[in-house]
Design a protein that fits this description.
Blueprint lengths: L2 E6 L3 H16 L5 E7 L3 E3 L13 E3 L1 H6 L3 E11 L4 E6 L4 E5 L2 E4 L3 E3 L7 H4 L1 E2 L3 H13 L11 E5 L3 H17 L7 E5 L11 H14 L1 E4 L4 E5 L2 E4 L4 E3 L2 E4 L3 E3 L16 E2 L12 E3 L4 E2 L13 H19 L13 E5 L5 E5 L4 E5 H15 L7 H7 L8
Parallel strand pairs: 1-2, 1-8, 2-5, 8-20, 10-17, 11-12, 11-17, 12-13, 19-21
Antiparallel strand pairs: 3-4, 5-6, 6-7, 9-18, 14-15, 15-16, 22-23, 23-24
Helix pairs in contact: 1-7
Pfam family, one: Pyr_redox_2
Family: Belongs to the NADH dehydrogenase family.
InterPro entries: FAD/NAD-bd_sf (IPR036188), FAD/NAD-binding_dom (IPR023753), NDH-2 (IPR045024)
Length: 400
């Protein structure tokens, strides 16, 4: 009798979960195990690169690797999961309701930017959360060159000084200067509620971010709360108004809303608490991976972050273990003790750190080469060749 593994999501975690599950099934000649991926489109959206130009090119097709490993793809958007009957409800390409049964489920539906934190975000702020919204921002930035020069036109406000906010802000000076007349003042402002630049980072990394920001002419407004975003800019909690034609929201991320269907297992940011096998606590046949999983990476109290770095390896472990559960094999406990940070800092370069204590190992051009290698090559799908996929989908194989 066939056994159905269904994976919801085709991001980094979902893609690798499918390939890893297929790998273990093939190694065990388990022809009775069927693997399906449900997602709106059969392509990997390379979200770590959405702050760059030419956003529409930040995709990679998935059907070549899925076909190589006999993974079925179902175009659709999941609206409900009944864990008791093990049934998924989704809307197909024609927006018609469909149902899919599963024996094992892997939730890999990713995360979303929160737009409910400040009035006016949805109406007046741009964001980099998805490829379509990033494309809207890119088009808007290009349109600024057609407007008359003014302080408002030449001011871009980035709300939030986390990873995405820093990469977007440091990308902007060179891009804006290339569009505007020589000698025009460019004002890139980062509004951050914390008291330090890069408050979640090590002092050593903070110092590099500050140096790059200073040399690029970026202004940081620290310990600052935003009251409202309008069509003219934003208003701070102090009542101060900052006029800007462009406001970019990057603060606040939460797990995809499908995690709300498993509320008794929800943890920080709506992510699901999981066992070392990545099986969701309290749900025998449901696994979670990537941004929706709150998983321990080691025995030192660290947990996987919402990054492709963690999603890729978590996906491989989740895929392996979900297939192992149908093959009566022992699961592999997820571990990811090595952690690096590689932060793009625009025309200044980049910074690369190692370890959870974020020791800076390289900066500027040297770090930029590492960043480009990671984002332009390493995180993309493998070559659609059977032996290559079988090797790379092994959760115990090195990938960095």
């Amino acid at each position: 009798m066939n056994k159905e593994i269904v994976i919801i999501g085709a991001g980094f975690a979902g893609m690798w979960a499918a390939l890893s599950a297929a790998r273990l099934a093939k190694l065990n000649q388990a022809e009775n195990i069927s693997i399906s991926v449900i997602a709106p489109v059969s392509e990997l959206r390379v979200r770590p690169r959405l702050y760059e130009e030419n956003v529409s090119a930040m995709i990679a097709p998935l059907m070549p690797v899925f076909n190589t490993m006999d993974v079925q793809f179902i175009a659709g958007s999941v609206s409900n999961i009944d864990s008791d009957s093990q049934t998924i409800k989704y809307l197909d390409e024609n927006q018609l309701p469909q149902f899919k049964q599963y024996d094992r489920l892997v939730l890999a539906s990713g995360s979303n930017l929160r737009t409910d934190l400040v009035n006016g975000i949805d109406q007046y702020a741009f964001n980099l959360d998805q490829i379509d919204t990033a494309a809207m921002l890119e088009q808007h930035l290009k349109s600024l060159a057609k407007k008359p020069a003014s302080q408002s036109r030449n001011t871009v406000i980035v709300c939030g000084g986390g990873f995405t906010g820093i990469e977007m802000a440091t990308e902007l000076p060179a891009r804006l200067k290339a569009m505007f007349s020589e000698g025009e003042d460019i004002n890139v402002i980062v509004v951050e509620r914390n008291e330090q630049i890069g408050s979640n980072y090590s002092p050593e990394l903070q110092a590099v971010i500050k140096q790059a920001s200073d040399e690029l002419g970026i202004t940081w407004m620290l310990n600052t709360q935003i009251e409202q975003i309008t069509d003219e800019g934003l208003t701070l909690s102090t009542g101060e108004r900052i006029l800007a034609d462009t406001v970019i929201w990057t603060a606040g991320v939460q797990a995809n809303a499908l995690t709300n269907l498993f509320q008794k297992s929800q943890g920080p940011q709506g992510r699901l608490n999981v066992e070392s096998s990545l099986k969701v606590n309290g749900y025998e046949n449901v696994f979670a991976t990537g941004d929706v999983a709150y998983a321990k990476t080691d025995d030192k109290g660290n947990h996987a972050l919402m990054t492709c770095q963690h999603a890729i390896l978590m996906g491989k472990f989740a895929g392996h273990n979900v297939a192992a559960s149908l093959l009566d094999l022992e699961p592999l406990p997820y571990k990811q003790e090595n952690y690096v940070t590689c932060l793009d800092l625009g025309s200044w370069g980049a910074v690369y750190t190692e370890g959870w204590d974020q020791v800076v190992k390289s900066v500027k051009d040297e770090a930029k080469k590492i960043k480009v290698s990671i984002t332009n090559e390493l995180i993309y799908p493998p070559a659609p060749e059977y032996n290559v996929i079988m090797e790379q989908a092994d959760p115990l194989a090195p990938w960095v």
